[in-house]
Amino acid sequence: AIERTLSIIKPDAVAKNVIGQIYSRFEAAGLKVIAARMVHLSEQQAGQFYAVHKERPFFKDLVSFMTSGPVMIQALEGENAIARNRELMGATDPKKADKGTIRADFADSIDANAVHGSDAAETAAVEIAFFFAGMNVHSR
Ligand code: CMP
């Protein structure tokens, strides 16, 4: 089915100047960018976005990393978009990510892991709505 997913290119990958290379991978996999914005997240925004991880030991580091520089946020649309984007990203820990995935190629650590992608349809809808008003999402 045609799905939507929320993708974030994290501060490490933005700093490495690989936004375009990552967008090319989305496009080559049949995922369309239907909304996009660059944001330097506040602590409050990052904490709210990652609220499900609030009790995890890595939460503080996660918020501090995600606010360390601008991120590029996009909604992607396409066949099976949630799983397809997760395949493109590779495992959360770049040391465990398959060869040729975004994280294997561009990430340095489990914190600085280049990209975020929604993990399920329910979270995708919540995450897209967190960053994009409906009028700014351009289904095509
Ligand atoms: P992301 O998909 O953005 O969701 C939460 C982030 O927390 C994750 O990617 C990692 O960058 C970061 N993180 C740090 N340590 C861990 C961990 N032990 N397990 C899962 N995520 C972690």
TrEMBL record:
UniProt keyword annotation of Magnesium present: yes
Gene3D superfamilies named among the record's database cross-references: Nucleoside diphosphate kinase-like domain
Sequence positions that bind ATP: 10, 58, 86, 92, 103, 113
Biological process according to GO: CTP biosynthetic process; GTP biosynthetic process; UTP biosynthetic process
Alphabetized SMART domains for the sequence: NDK (SM00562)
InterPro entries linked to this entry: NDK-like_dom (IPR034907), NDK-like_dom_sf (IPR036850), Nucleoside_diP_kinase (IPR001564)
Annotated HAMAP family: NDP_kinase
GO MF term list: ATP binding; metal ion binding; nucleoside diphosphate kinase activity
Transmembrane intervals: none
Keyword presence, Phosphoprotein: yes
EC top class, as a word: transferase
Enzyme active site: 116 (pros-phosphohistidine intermediate)
Enzyme Commission numbers on file: 2.7.4.6
Any single GO CC term annotated in Swiss-Prot or TrEMBL for this entry: cytoplasm
Subunit structure: Homotetramer.
Cofactor(s) this protein cannot do without: Mg(2+)
Keywords: ATP-binding, Cytoplasm, Kinase, Magnesium, Metal-binding, Nucleotide metabolism, Nucleotide-binding, Phosphoprotein, Transferase
Function description: Major role in the synthesis of nucleoside triphosphates other than ATP. The ATP gamma phosphate is transferred to the NDP beta phosphate via a ping-pong mechanism, using a phosphorylated active-site intermediate.
Subcellular location: Cytoplasm
Protein's name in the database: Nucleoside diphosphate kinase
Catalysed reaction, written as an equation: a ribonucleoside 5'-diphosphate + ATP = a ribonucleoside 5'-triphosphate + ADP; a 2'-deoxyribonucleoside 5'-diphosphate + ATP = a 2'-deoxyribonucleoside 5'-triphosphate + ADP
Species this chain originates from: Thauera terpenica 58Eu
Domain Nucleoside diphosphate kinase-like, chain residue ranges per copy: 2-139
Lineage summary: Bacteria, Pseudomonadati, Pseudomonadota, Betaproteobacteria, Rhodocyclales
Location, primary (coarse class): cytoplasm
Family: Belongs to the NDK family.
Pfam families in UniProt: NDK (PF00334)
Superkingdom of source: Bacteria
